[in-house]
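Q: My hope is that you can spare some time for a protein that puzzles me. Underneath my words sits a plain record pairing an amino acid chain with its backbone structure tokens. Those tokens are not coordinates but codes from a learned vocabulary of shapes. Thank you; the sequence and its tokens follow:
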Amino acid sequence: MPEKLLTAIPRPLREQYEKGLAAIQRQNLDYAIAIFDQVLQKEPGFYACREALRAAQAKRAGKKGGFLKKMFGAATSSPLMAKGQLALRSNPAEAINIAEQMLNSDPHNVAAHKMLADAALALDLPRTAALSLEIAFRNTPDREVAIKLGQALAQSGQSEKGENILAELASTFPNDPEIAKVLKNVSARRTMSEGGYEALEGGGGSYRDILKDKQEAAALEQENRAVKNEDVAGRLLAEYEARIAQEPGNLRLLRSAAELYTQKKQFDKALEYYNRILTTAGASDPSLERVMAETTVKKFEHALAQLDRSAPDYAEQSARIQAEQQAYELEQCRKRVERYPNDLQMRFELGELYFKRGKFNEAISEFQKAQNNPHKRIQAMSYLGQCFAKRGMNDLAARTLQNAIKEKPTFDDEKKELIYALGCVLEKMGKKDEAIEQFKLIYETDIAYKDVAAKVDAYYSGQ
């Protein structure tokens, strides 16, 4: 049951789908969800409708949040989960419908997303599976979900994205043979796909096709490099603007235009197009919100670079822009965390911003949550140790750093930083012998690291 494009869906169902989109625009979310549910029961592979349903669910949840609703959703999801698990064995399509019932009440239900993904993969709907697995991974970034997500992305033609997720997972679990094997398979799949060899194996291509694809890829690469040229960028923008006038809902075109405007340092125009993407999609997108924030930061940086350094008020203007930029970054990150409280990557980023601004209590709170993200755990623990040390809580700092060191098997720069930080904390505690033992560990492998040579030499000279 392959996934279907809009053009492959029967007209009556297409019309229903369009009614659902219109209902989202009118904020009639209950009606939109009911329509999308009906359409997907008849066409489970209609991916665009599944995406629209997910957006409507998230938008409604944002309006109807609250403790009682969450408690009610948790109480009613258990029997549905049991029913869905039974259906998964013999009727995956029914399992998807049951999972959607659960997600209508709680769009962040990780168990429901996992069940839906398993059912979608059984029906050969990898994009549908990846959609749910991405949400599950954002809420609970564990090893099993990451592996399935990487595989589903590769199966749905997003091999590079899947490979990146698996590569990051492999760096977190360097000795895990299963992750290494899956990453190798996904990398091979990407090579086959990009080179055109899959079509060749299936009899649907030729070596001439492969050569043609490579030539086209080279031409595109040259064009991408040439985008740095103002004339080429202007020509491409004119083309995009003309096409957007004909296809106002084409999100890919809107994003390409926004990226080009950013490159041309027309940041307000870029942000206008990013906002159009949000309005057209009808739902929040954390990755897009992050890009918009980064674009605004570039706007601040550009304004700073435009200042005349010889002007008498340069220092005042520079300080003002930097203060505004820092306040913006912190406020935007804080708002994103409020909207996506389960996104531990965002928690980590907010903790970093608090740390840089000397708000150590606030940073501790964020890093304590962020350490549950396996990809950021060691870094979060390192920051926690530094926060405790900044507040004079040296015993807590030492214990936190020691725990982080135990969890870090590879003696790389990150581990050196942890050991060095622990040595400095032990010095502050007056435990000079214990501190020097930490510095010696680094000295034995990297004599040039920071000032460990001076510390170790001073220790031996003192004897």
Observations:
- Residues 6-140 form a domain with the Serine Threonine Protein Phosphatase 5, Tetratricopeptide repeat fold (CATH 1.25.40).
- Residues 314-339 form the longest helix (26 residues).
- Residues 65-76, 194-228 have pLDDT under 50 and may be disordered.
